[in-house]
Amino acid sequence: MDIDTVKERAGPREFGPGDDMPREYREAATRMIQFHANSEIMGAYIERPFIRQAPSLDRKLAVSAQVQDEVGHGQLLYRAAEELGIKTREEMLDELEAGDGKFLNCFHYPLDDWYELPMIMFFVDGAAMRRQATLKRTSWEPYAHAIDKICFEEGFHIKHGEDILRTIATGSKRDRERLQAAFEKWWPRILQFFGPTDDQSTHGEFAMEVGLKTMSNDDLRNAFLNAYVPKAKKYGLELPEYPRVEYHEADDYYEVYEEDLDWEEFFTVAKNEYPTGVGQIEKRERAQAAVEWVRDAIESPEQGGVSPAAADD
Ligand SMILES: [Fe+2]
Ligand SMILES: [Fe+2]
After folding, report:
1. What is the 3-state secondary structure (H, E, C) of the chain?
2. What's the pLDDT tens digit per position in 17-44?
């Protein structure tokens, strides 16, 4: 299939492993899905410390289930990307470990305390849900298929995040102050979730033309703002002065001043050059190293390990 045919036929779940897709499409889809998969894995790493820090057994169980979900989402997505024939799942995981894998800006920053957790579990997952819901109509069918399951589980994550937010927001004055501080720190990063404005986005236009993306960064950011500014207010959170967010009363919608967002930091973070991002990647690297001996034992029976086949004897 040539690229013009792809653009003509592009529609929801139109293409799959049985189609002869041009390399340009397969590379673009791999880039997009790998980014998404990496983000799920890094999301798990950022949430993981809160299994230990959760204030009650119920919260511990819920956070632990959520971390497992995120790892599962990553695996589903690597499989969907693998079927494009550009990279294997192992190659993508190795790239992530080596610091060459790109992932969401928000997951480059550590979460410092429990008050910051709903910034990820409610606002970032809420933003993710906005984007993912539109991806049920992506043109690469295995991606759309993975998204069905991801959206189902992500719905629970947002409910859980909102429950944590509500508990803190209805707590003591001190709780509310700490929540507000966490919000002010995270809000600009959250607004950058959808990536650069459409005119700065490198791959956005092509992805729209071939049906991989169905909504632009700017439209998604606006949709998110209009849904989540009222929610933030509902829990008593006040928007910081910057980035400025304007409310257009006549049309009942919010708009952010794009120029108030720090795009230089965003692009530094995206290149894995931000110090905290490196810290997150090292955790991934250490986890990989910690299980290396298990892989060796399974794969190299002559080194004293037992291969799955030998175990049957
Ligand atoms: Fe997820
Ligand atoms: Fe999630």
Report:
1. CCHHHHHHHCCCCCECCCCCCCHHHHHHHHHHHHHHHHHHHHHHHHHCHHHHHCCCHHHHHHHHHHHHHHHHHHHHHHHHHHCCCCCCHHHHHHHHHCCCCCCCHHHHCCCCCHHHHHHHHHHHHHHHHHHHHHHHHCCEHHHHHHHHHHHHHHHHHHHHHHHHHHHHHCCCHHHHHHHHHHHHHHHHHHHCCCCCCCCCCCCHHHHHHCCCCCCCHHHHHHHHHHHHHHHHHHCCCCCCCCCCEEEECCCCEEEECHHHCCHHHHHHHHCCCCHHHHHHHHHHHHHHHHCHHHHHHHHCHHHCCCCCCHHHC
2. 999 999 999 999 999 999 999 999 999 9
